[in-house]
Specification:
- This protein folds into two domains: 152 residues, Ribosomal protein L4/L1 (Ribosomal Protein L4, Chain: A, 3-Layer(aba) Sandwich), CATH 3.40.1370.10; 49 residues, no CATH class.
- Helix content is 34%, strand content 13%.
- It is built from seven helices and six strands; from the N terminus they run E-E-H-H-H-E-H-E-H-E-H-E-H.
- The chain has a six-stranded mixed beta sheet with strand order 2-1-3-6-4-5.
- The longest helix has 17 residues.
């Protein structure tokens, strides 16, 4: 049974927190994580880029000079990609970058990412966030007491504007609702700090 430290908001260790073996001690499947991360980043792309080919650029209907006996290279249009103001050769056009990933692969990848956090001792459970109003200094002091380095990820079980706004001014830090948990954010951030309710929700949804 995997175990992580449970702390309070003062940074004191108040005990051990037992995790589900199915979710937090699963085999780390690197290819699945890679596939999911690549698909997630690809699906963020809008794909609205567009360039004009030589047939799309306005003008260039008249041949600049006759074909032969000018001493210059033959040319048929001033809108050739070789000319300034001409079209773009083989430029990008609108396309869909969406990649489909099977639900089973997503579950394997997410369990792998969570298990990797536990293996690397980069996961903590905080009993609660007693923050009534946004205050970045309070969260910074909490992270300093825990000696948490850069890019922590806070995983909460319910929307909390005070916590979100308090963390938003910390470089690299991010707050994520448990319903929006994803492989990219888990791997992109170093330390995972979750509430007990968020952990139980993960075990309920992604357990075997």
């Amino acid at each position: 049974m995997p175990i992580v430290k449970q702390v309070n908001f003062n940074g004191d260790v108040i005990g051990d927190f037992e995790l589900s073996q199915d979710v937090f001690e699963a085999p780390v499947h690197v290819p699945a994580m890679h596939q999911v991360v690549v698909a997630q980043l690809a699906n963020r792309r809008v794909g609205t880029h567009n360039t004009k080919d030589r047939g799309d650029v306005r003008g260039g209907g008249r041949k600049p000079w006759r074909q032969k006996h000018t001493g210059r290279a033959r040319v048929g249009s001033t809108r050739s990609p070789l000319w300034v103001g001409g079209g773009v050769a083989h430029g990008p056009h609108p396309r869909d970058y969406h990649q489909k990933v099977n639900k089973k692969v997503r579950r394997i990848a997410l369990r792998s990412a969570l298990s990797l956090k536990v293996q690397e001792s980069n996961m903590l459970v905080v009993d609660k966030f007693p923050i009534d109003s946004p205050r970045t200094k309070t969260v910074v002091a909490f992270l300093e007491r825990l000696e948490v380095g850069r890019k922590p990820l806070f995983l909460i079980h319910e929307s909390d504007a005070a916590v979100t706004k308090s963390v938003s001014n910390i470089p690299g830090a991010h707050v994520l609702h448990v319903d929006s948990v994803n492989v990219y954010d888990l791997l992109n951030h170093v330390k995972l700090i979750a509430t007990p309710e968020a952990v139980r929700k993960l075990e309920e949804v992604f357990g075997l």
